[in-house]
Amino acid sequence: MKKHLFTQAVKVCLVSLALIAFTVNGFGMEGNAGRIIPMGKVYMIKDGQTIGSYSSEAPLPENILLKTEGDCAVKLTDLYLVAVDKSQFAISNADTSRELRVKEGTVYFALSKLPQALVFTTPEGFVTVQQVILNASTEKSTLKGYVSVSKKGSEIGVIEGGSLLISTADGDKLVTAGNRIYLAQVVPGGAAGGAAGGAGAGTFGILGATAVFPLLGPAVTDEGPGSPAAPQ
After folding, report:
1. For the chain, how many structural domains are there in total?
2. What is the pLDDT of residues 152-183, one digit of tens each?
3. How many CA within 13 A on the CB side of residue 127?
4. Does residue 152 form part of some domain?
5. Strands (DSSP E) along the chain, which ranges?
6. Would 166 be classed as within a structural domain?
């Protein structure tokens, strides 16, 4: 239990520190423009090859796979991210939606409103956040959560601050603070399978086993992934 509380506190602090850093620096952004602050190094990957890297604050390259060496903070309009060491992720923006694609590792997020649909894409498929329901305790409430991808599968969890209404192929799921959904892929006529290869949003087939579970509870199967906010 102590390890769980310590781990969760560290991850919440990562997101909080990112918020503070961006506030202090006072970034001026236009539209959906984003900024990154590598706490080590960030590599840009295209077609499996490294095409560039960042080791200091820079504009966020969109639609490019980013691989972190050390944690990396990201700020977009109404969305703050912290990608942990050895994560691979990408951000893309459209007129009515924003996509966070996580290929590997864990990306923590913080948001206080949802001006456009937010799509979380993993190797197992994608889900869409339709609504953010914040706790009414303060005027400046912020929801903190994560998207995590490992060899055992993918999950999306809410750490604190409210709930997410998420649309999946199995219907809408309300993920409250302290809970997660574990994504598993289903092939037509078959049972939930393992992780699929990396494909673009909308090409993953049928999502299955998108049930809501406590961060400290079991995943869909006994071999499901452990939550980043739970004891390891």
Report:
1. 1
2. 899 999 999 999 999 988 889 999 999 999 88
3. 32
4. yes
5. 35-38, 41-46, 49-54, 58-59, 65-69, 72-76, 79-83, 88-93, 97-111, 117-122, 125-134, 143-150, 153-160, 162-168, 171-176, 179-186, 192-193, 206-208, 212-214
6. yes
